Amino acid sequence: MSSIVEVQGLRKVYDDGFEALKGVDLSIHKGEILALLGPNGAGKTTLISTLCGITTPTGGSASVGGHDIIGGYRAARAMIGLVPQEVALEPFEKVINTVRFSRGLFGKKQDDALVERTLRQLSLWDKRHNQTKELSGGMKRRVLIAKALIHEPQVLFLDEPTAGVDVELRRDMWQVVEELRAQGVTIILTTHYIEEAEAIADRVAVINKGEILLVQDKATLMQQMGRKSLRIELAEPITAVPEALSEYELELSDDGQSVTYHYDTRGQSGTGITRLMQALAQAGLHLRDIHTRQSSLEEIFVGLVREGAA
Q1: 130, 181, 207, 287: which could form a disulfide with 38 (CB 3.0–4.6 Å)?
Q2: Averaged over 112-139, what is the pLDDT?
Q3: Residues in domain ABC transporter (predicted)?
Q4: CATH H superfamily, domain 3-223
């Protein structure tokens, strides 16, 4: 699969000595959705800002569509659409003029049909003659998305695009993302809503303290690193896990009605579930029901960050 964004040894050190990026290496495939996950201060926004030409790197290199972000800045930037975290719009300008102006900044010819289609797609057409200061926070976020899309970029960066917005906009946003992916647009997404990344991303990159900890296909990541849990509902509540079951490290629920057993499907000695069932019977515990659950991407992410911080 061909790459559209290539990052090699990218570094960013600020004047106060803070190293925000520590030799980042990253290859992003054309047409994929990559979820960039990390805690606050991990370097997500710095990485995006650097690739978009907002921040100048201290070292290393990066290219977009084969264009170096320094030497071929104009060509690289023309391929990029950016939806930033901050809402910064000209308050007295009309929505439709704001979007048209953004297209003109990239030297694109006027295309009223595209402007209308984009505004309708984001439920902004009825607001096209409103000044941006008259819009709600969610509507302003929609304008930012329209501005990022209007010059028809091949790479779209979404930096926390749904933070603090309503459920309707979030749903509309992901519908737009799916349509763009179908058109071959590459999308890099940062989000605190990890369930969104789990739902739509093809691959996941985890960054912490300016370093990429892992880049992996989402399904493979969850298969390789996700644990499973077996929750066992008991016929009668207990106050403590019997000593005979201590090797299984069972977690007792607050009401004593169930115990939870964590296991790894990759274990060479098996899951241990059969032995556990026998041990429960020998301990005099009777089962009412059992449930299994796969670890979520959020749990895997938290574990990776903790390991990286250790």
Answers
A1: 207
A2: 93
A3: 5-234
A4: P-loop containing nucleotide triphosphate hydrolases (3.40.50.300)
